[in-house]
Amino acid sequence: MQGYQIVFFTQQERTHGALSIAEWLLATARELGIKGATVSAAQGGYGRDGAYRAAHFFETGEQPVEVAVAVSPEHCRLLFERIRAEKLQIFYVKIPAEFGLTGAEDEAKDDRRNG
């Protein structure tokens, strides 16, 4: 399938309503029918303001977090519409991608067609 890989970058402490931004993105993706998402916590990093943020032994509030999804063009449109409607500002990277499931019947058909 052709679509996009989108990675959102945020911090553990950032919230929208009662949820962290990462949790909100996961819940919204699921609600929109996006089949999967991955949350990854980073050791540290810096953002637009240049300030270094990292997880500390007892405090993880400033810990950088990534949320990655692989989506169809339609799901991409719906996700960004929802983010705009909620007036959220989240840094992201969006890359055109081909994705699928190894061993799937469609993959076998593609292999037969391509040689």
From TrEMBL:
Top-level division of the source organism's lineage: Bacteria
Pfam name, any one: DUF190
Coiled-coil features, chain-numbered ranges: none
Family: Belongs to the UPF0166 family.
Protein name: DUF190 domain-containing protein
Source organism per UniProt: Desulfovibrio legallii
